[in-house]
Amino acid sequence: KHSQVPQASGFDSTLSFLREGYDFISNRCDDLGTDGFETRVMLRSVLCLRGESAVSLFYGQDLFTRKGAMPPSTLRLLQDKGSVQSLDGEAHRHRKRMFSQLLVGTPPDRMVSLFERHWRKAEEIWIANGETELFSASNLVLTHAAWEWGGLPADTMDIDDLCDQLVGMVENAGRIGPRMWRELARRAALERRLERLIVQLRKGEIKAADDAPVSFITRWIDSDGNELSAKVAAVELINLLRPIVAIGRWILFSAMALHRYPQWQIRIAAGADEWIEPFVEEVRRTYPFFPVIGGRALRPFSWGGKRFDSGQWVMLDLFSTNRDARIYPDPLAIHPERAPSWRDQDFRFMPQGAGDLRKDHRCPGEWLTVSIMSSAIRLLTRDMRYQVDDQNLDMPMNRLPTRPKGGLRIRLADHTI
Ligand code: HEM
């Protein structure tokens, strides 16, 4: 009798995963006619899942820990030990409140206006140069804005270096080998630097505004009744800065989408504000960022009529779940009319995780992300005149995370002439 959870062919799928990247899980699900299969990756048994009911298993029940669920180097590069993502249960929920209060407790207006100010300043340079590459340009704007938003004194950080380090963490998260080790060493150095700044802040040797995120983190009382150690406070500060800068990738994709859908570019340029957020959400749904989320079961569970033990490793396919034709007909096309939204907190739309952000590991940064992307779209369509010359915008699907290798080159005209 056939199991309802088929086994993928071959003893171990590590090489296929590296070769197929974003498409690895969906290729096999399509072939096997299923939403879940078992295989081995790095010789470890893994249950690979996609689709709405898999998402509701994965999120919302405190069933999966992120510990031991990603290659250790990826985890350390993106989140590191002691971070909110490495916690479970009550300790997680408590620490998560720190992020929710900062990121969804009030609208992200301050971050957006800092972003716009730094964008307009940079725009003058882009115009003077006649052209720019939008991915690296956005990253730098975001780093300036994020550092100012965070609240540590401007003269305590070299922003170009910081940008390089934060971008490197994301660009190299899917790598193995020497590049990854170099990246881990750079991350460790940044952590130590921020740790020292936090110690100085606590001693009153440097100042930050009372309502600045860095002050909030530094004062936060954790679930054990104590302030965070300087080391963990630094890790969580990086957990704000790194993903804000990562929005640069979504800005790149937004500009690519505007280029691909000139009718939307024109409509939004003409003032259709109500379509900006739905357009942004469709960009987040269709373009590739996080391929999968890994979890390890904290308790036994069932899937497809089969029982799995506590400790079972699961990989949930974010990318293909967002492009599920059963939920989104014509799934690869951008149709802002369908307007999926992070506000729904359900299990169908998961560019940055799914479910209830207070209870599970869903990303707390979605409101901020969508707001910054919306602002970038307003700036691109209404504030700037630019042309996109012919260039290679292919995205290799086995690079994690992927993007066009050369970003997006744009040619600018001074709109005041
Ligand atoms: C968690 C994606 C932006 C802070 C996550 C998760 C994903 C994600 C997939 C993991 C969910 C899980 O483990 O189940 C993204 C993407 C972003 C982004 C693609 C676009 C740039 C942000 C921003 C912030 C942020 C702007 C904060 C300023 C976090 C934190 C977590 C997280 C702190 C850990 C939450 C937890 O474990 O409870 N994000 N995120 N992210 N994100 Fe984001």
From TrEMBL:
Its cofactor is heme. GO terms for molecular function: heme binding; iron ion binding; monooxygenase activity; oxidoreductase activity, acting on paired donors, with incorporation or reduction of molecular oxygen. InterPro entries: Cyt_P450_sf. PANTHER family: CYTOCHROME P450 YJIB-RELATED, P450, PUTATIVE (EUROFUNG)-RELATED. Belongs to the cytochrome P450 family. This is Cytochrome P450.
